[in-house]
């Protein structure tokens, strides 16, 4: 099964974005995931990792919840 980690900047107020991504991933993949974790960070970080591999980084990608869910999809169920 798969672990999704969303590391977000607390001082920047990115909790809402992290929750939006978490909700979208859970709605899309539900029981196929072991865990969706929100990880606090700082210095402007907003990174989504699947089993330790970054699939979204706000420094490199435009924030789009649907695009993030699409980036997660190839990793879900890949290691069954």
UniProtKB/TrEMBL annotation:
Membrane-spanning parts: none
SUPFAM superfamilies xref list: Thioredoxin-like (SSF52833)
InterPro entries: Selenoprotein_Rdx-typ, Thioredoxin-like_sf
Keyword Chaperone on entry: no
Residue ranges that the Swiss-Prot or TrEMBL entry lists as coiled coil: none
Native source species: Halorubrum glutamatedens
Pfam families: Rdx (PF10262)
Signal peptide as annotated in the record: none
UniProt-listed NCBIfam families: CXXU_selWTH (TIGR02174)
Keywords: Redox-active center
Protein name: SelT/SelW/SelH family protein
């Amino acid at each position: 099964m798969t672990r999704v980690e969303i590391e977000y900047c607390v001082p920047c107020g990115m909790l809402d974005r992290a929750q939006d991504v978490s909700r979208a991933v859970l709605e899309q993949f539900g029981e196929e995931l072991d865990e969706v974790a929100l990880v606090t960070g700082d210095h402007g970080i907003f990174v989504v990792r699947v089993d330790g591999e970054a699939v979204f980084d706000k420094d490199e990608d435009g924030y789009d919840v649907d695009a993030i869910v699409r980036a997660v999809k190839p990793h879900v169920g890949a290691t069954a």
